[in-house]
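Project standup — Tuesday

K.O.: blocked on the structure for the chain from last sprint. Re-posting the sequence here as requested.
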Amino acid sequence: MTSSSPQSNAPPGQSGWRMWLAIVILGIGAFTIVTTELAPIGLLSAIAHDIGRSESAVGLTVTLYAWIGAFSALLAAVALGRAPRKPLLIGLMLCLALSNGAAMLAGSFGLLLAARACGAVAHGLFWAVIAASAAQIAPPRHVGLATSIVFGGVSAASVLGVPLATLIGQESNWRIAFGAVGALSVLTAFGMLAVLPRLEQSQARDARAALGAVLRRADLWAIYLATAFAVTGHFAAFTFIEPFLREAPGMQATMVIALLFGFGAAGLAANFLTGIFIDRYLRPFLMLALALMTLSLMVLGMWGTLIGAAGIGAMLVLWGAAISAIFVGFQTWILRTAGAAAMPASAVYVAIFNAAIGSGAMLGAWVLSLSGFAAVMIVGGLGGAVSILLVAAIGRPASAPQAALQP
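H.V.: unblocked you, prediction finished:
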């Protein structure tokens, strides 16, 4: 066990405020890359109309992105273990900028898919190293807080990124939305250049052996499996949230944007609470979040047409808060359990997470083609219910100081 000194995990010479600023910049990077991934969710109708494809077909831009991201995350575990973290993260943000620029200029559905595929490679590599990098910068006893800040970018992508992309698509053009995210990617790269410390490379001599050791650990696979069901359920429903809201009785276009903002705002608030409680109450907090996600999706699926805009808004708030805590909770649990194997363990986590996103989007499209939006929400809730059972069967997480092993 390493020392629990607050600065024992931070790079040498890194002051307190600069350390936390670096973690915030990583959170902004997470915001940018997740906005890129999820932007089509709020633009499905606009893209489908412009390129002459169905909404379910356009939803494949999310599926393809996620699956390629899953593969590249595993590639990162083998190929990037010794790569310098700071230039790697900066380069990946610039690759993301190029991907968004290409998507903005795409003249066909095939070119749009190709542009998204390029961004997905950067996405998987980015997520494979970002959590371990935050854990390396932060004091050991605040790994959960650092993770919640980074994953605050995920919630912010929901509260600002997806709704703003939707607004731009409605008021101007979906292509402008991709261009704006590309510009933000460039600005984030410059921010990383200015404030990220020099991070030590992994000391693992054999990245393949380290990855193989992670893949043989039953304790990590239990968490991975619970994550897979929760994320698959969430994205089966969330991929089609925009058309679901548009079809709700009495729903107006401006109200759809407001409800998406409410979803994300709840996620940001939950991120704050998660940062306070996650290091001490990881499993109960995670189970509560999974229960709220399951409840809200079931209510939307069974009674979404009866509860009105206010009722739908309330369920979206619960759902948004819950999924934010779920993302932070599972990632923190992986970091605690993996210890010195944080890099390959995070890479596998990201691969499974992104594979679940793609599977969820495809599952949602399939259910939608058979039954409709209500059934999609119910299937999403079932994914959360299975995850609850799996988390209940897993042993208690390691305490925060035990997670302080160098990633």
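K.O.: great, moving the ticket to review. Confidence is low (pLDDT under 50) at residues 1-9, 401-407. The chain has 15 helices and no strands.
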